[in-house]
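Q: Could you write out the predicted structure for this multi-component system? I'm mainly interested in how the pieces pack against one another.
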Amino acid sequence: MKLSRRSFIKLVGATGAGLSLTQLGFNVQPIEAASNECRIHSAKEYTSICNFCSCGCGMICHVKDGKLINLEGDPDHIINEGALCSKGASQYQVPYASHRGTTPLYRAPGSDRWEEIDWDTAINKIAQKMKDTRDENWIAEETVGGQTYKVNRTDAIGFLGGAQINNEECYLFTKMARGMGACFLEHQARV
Amino acid sequence: MKNAKCFLIEGSNCAENHPMSMKWITQAKDNGAVVIHVDPRYTRTSQIADIYVRIRPGTDIAFLNGVAKYLIDNKLYDEYFVLNQTNALYLVDEDFGFADGVFSGYNAADRKYDNSSWSYALDGNRKPRVAESIDDPRCVMARTREFLKRYDLKTVSDITGASEDQIKLVAETMAKNRPGTCMYALGMTQHTVGLQNIRGFGLVQLLLGNIGRPGSGINALRGEPNVQGSTDMACLFGYLPGYLAPPNHNVADLDTWTSSTGTFRLTFLINLLKTWYGEHATPENEYCFNWLPKKNGTVDYSIFSMFESAITEQKLKVLYCVGQNPLVTQPNLNVVFDGLKNMEMVIVQDPFLTETACFWERPGTDASTIDTEVIYLPAAAFLEREGTLSNSGRLVQWRYTGITPPGIAKPDLEIIDLIFRKVRDLYAGSTAAKDVPLLNITWDYPNEDNPTFAEAVLKELNGYNLVTGELNKGIGELKADGTTSAGNWLYAGVYANGVNLSKRKDNQTDPSGLGIYPGFAWSWPGNMQVLYNRASCDLEGRPYDEENKLIWWDEAQGKWVGYDTPDVPNAAHGPDTPNGQKPFRMSGEGVGRLLALKYQDFEPDAVLPRDTSSVPADGPIPEFYEPVESPVSNILHPAVHYNPCTVYPRKGMEEYQPIGTVDEYPYVLMTSSLAEHWCAGSVTRNMTWLNEMYPEPIIEMPVTLAERLGVKNGEQVKVWSARGEMKVKAHVTNRMQTMIIHGQEVDVVWMPYNWGFKGLSTGPSTNYLTIDAGDPNTRIQETKACLINICKV
């Protein structure tokens, strides 16, 4: 019987439902005692994929009372088989890092400071500026080499980024950019 | 990778920058594989290598061409593979040639090629004429051999600094230990000859038949977690999702588009247009093709041009930047800084406040002189949001979430959605022609049928049968008549039968024993793990290596079968059909290309091509050129020093883009990331654990150079280039060595580039020194080789 570490733990966990573990050759009591002491005991678990290089290593995250309390390499993942590198392991620090941004900020022209703003203000400012810029810099037609072509675009709004966000986010970013008529659309693939 | 018998790691320090790849390299090594590391710097990767070869930065083409020539001269190549599965026997156009450092058709005035002579001699059916033997001087193999004549061991050794014995040893080791794989990273791409560097791998691997088999191929170790996915999704000016060409100004209709891209890809474009423009997209209006914005085909839209055009013509006025920090990662940061300064609004969406968001706070800046409005949007980090990402092997994996972002930060998906909906609200009711595409592009997430935002988008990528309403099961179901949709054809099948296959976790089932695991997540296209796996079989469809077979033709079943999804145009088309003989089906020819010549593949009597092969801007085969800033002259052709298609400085940027010369800047600088810090450092420099391990930037220099400069380990030095200067600590080490090139001493030094003025750990940004001259194909800069000077402080 081939068992992965996690399916083993799941099976062990099922002993509460009254299954016998003698077939595995284990003494049940010490295992239960150990799991009681374990810091991830009764924590909610979810999996993610590392956010540094592109190996795509699996991670297990443990959450208790809404807080991430543990992060480790996923032993059942075909790429990293439980291991994480120095950068990957440090991701445990990301959610509660001291310098995380927690609110939208605005820096006015000429100012030397940020001011906190709410989401509505931020989104309204951005959308209005994008609309105004698009309207003022719309190129319906242009002449290239003596010929006039219909081109329907704006070169005044640029979209930058993608390698740090998920596929669905990248796709919507692209769709938004093209939908607005932008051709300046780039990301880290060109670094 | 564990199946490889030989690794050629060149331009990558995977032990530090892709540590988990090293797990599989060492496993292969335990099974007897030989590891070769080619790099100017002796790194942790070199330490596990059996063969380490030090070459000068920017000389990879000379090295690889030297290996290729040695393989050909000594008949060490895979003759069956080369004759049958590459274009070796195809006849080349008589006007094609190479002389005095340039290929035929070069126009020195605009530094571009007219590539009309880079083609085959075609027969009456528009197919390449085929030579009877490899000795025919007109065939691709003969022309390749003739081209490589100049890359003898002595010349290559003179250029690269590697010894003749080392070059021989690498070629012989690769030939003896097959299958072998090439692994590379930014060490190969960040050059003005970046694309041709990779073509160099292609040439060697085609000669050795090292494609499509387990443990073979060319592996790009990509630098960002989802840079594969973001490229697939086309956050790039030169693509639409799925690597489809966006129209230029002069592409007025679908026929014009198809005449340069082919009917094969037209199907996928129609599926994209149906996805974006829904019921408005009809055959009569060419599926709203003209709703797509058309870029000016004579203008550069790359990230370089974003900042440069803001300086030279105030063109770009608003920049929306998501999870990227160009004020650390771009070369020649003076350009980025002044570009940002000239914009009207800069929006930065990131989990951390980055240097780009705070550019007006840069030390030494008077913020009152900067009129740019800046908005920072706090984004959720990856553990706080869900969705898929695609790794370097095209494995599409689902990320769950279980925690909320800090404060009122939001997932990127929601922020993008909020902005786009608000922009649309502002346009509500407009009937102006320019606003019609904006108001009518489909945008309805989440919705009743798809309550989860990310899954709603993933389903759109997978696409639907618009007649039955069912999700597509694969690319084969996509039609060119508007009855199917797919936001990205490559992802068709990720949601087959209504199941999100990216969530699968079967790590037990591997019928091949090769590590394929078909039930673990999902790979594009069609859950295929090894691209070009048809090349692992001979003409009859029998695996070259029966013990490690991936796919094969099953005569009894009348189809291609195997442990992996067969990479064939149609699984039922056997080896006795043209489709059964396309080991490289994504090229127009269907075979591997030693020379990447122009070719359009036509079905009999068709007006429009089926497919078109791509041709590099700077030649059909890699030629060695020096870096733009180089310490020595080009001994192959002194008059053509660097890539003849690279334009530098660029128009209007002369003041920002000087070229440093060896008399003032005698040392070669290369840069990279670390095991502890990564890219802009926006994340890693905010992690206390990592800062403790690697607290500040340094410069690594050879002991011999340090002695000449009077610098001891740990002392401060001033480092400067034609573009900028900074002070850092010297790390004096044997990892770097003074090299002898054309009989003269050349010193190479190295710096990490991951620091800036924001975050917990701050330090000078190395990219104020680096050069932004670019590859004419990719535009990617030459951060792996520029000239600097150093002195003790």
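A: Regarding packing and overall arrangement: The two ends of chain A are 48 Å apart (CA to CA).
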